[in-house]
Amino acid sequence: MKIVTFNIRTSDKDSTFDGSNSFCYRESLIRKELKKEQPDILCFQEMRPYQADWAVDNIKDMMFLGCGRDTTLANDESMLVGLKTGAFRMIAMDTFWLSPTPEVPGSRYEDQSDCPRCATELLVQYKKTGQIYRILNTHLDHISSSARVLGATALMDRLKVSAERYKHFGNFKTLVFGDFNAEPGDPEIDYMTADGSLTDITAGVGFTYHGYDPAQYHTKIDYIFVSPDVAVKSVEKWTREDHGLFLSDHYPISAIVDEE
Predict the structure, then answer these.
(1) Averaged over 188-197, what is the pLDDT?
(2) What is the per-residue pLDDT across 75-106, written as a single tens digit (0 to 9) for each?
(3) Crossing angle (nearest 10°) for helices 23-37 and 49-58
(4) Buried b (16+ CB within 10 A) or exposed e, 229-258
(5) Class of domain 2-257
(6) What is the C-alpha separation between 252 and 207, in angstroms, rounded?
């Protein structure tokens, strides 16, 4: 099973904010890469409404789930999760906010940027093997380390809550995807693996954020964490580039897990 985390770099329709790497120029390259790679689970971060609609209209072999992070649920970035069409049975879905009131749309911690932070959580069954997976896709704050620690704490607390909620579904496995805006060794990343329930399988991929200029920008801030019962065959980042045109300002990370 191929799983992917992909910060697509936010964009509104026809925006040329990123110059020659604006989404309107990158989108055809993204479509080609996804057609070649054929992921089973694809977790996007920074998907603006226009981009979410683009994904639904152009990536026909996947079903997408998620909503915007603001109070309207429609006018801001979403943590969109794509599932290969026909490959999964949907059991449950939830969206929650990284805040003192996780069920309140648009809620946030006082000590963070103005951007609300949320996560999309799914419980699905992979038809090919019958295995059940809990999927969580998120994006931590870009300004405040203390807010990221609070966000990581909220994520781990939520995993405990949903473990109890889903306990009657047997031994499900956990996959956590996201842009954590923190580097290896930072307290928010250490917190994700501190209790042993999750492992960072992306430790060997090198830097993931390049800002369209890998010679100048090279930080590791994108991650896939999995429960210890997930068998990992391979992990790689997608570095496709076409004459200076990148897939995003982040390298997507792909992993093959639980090979049948």
Answers:
(1) 97
(2) 999 999 999 999 999 999 999 999 999 999 99
(3) 40
(4) ebeeeebebbebeeeeebbbbbbbbbbebb
(5) alpha beta
(6) 11
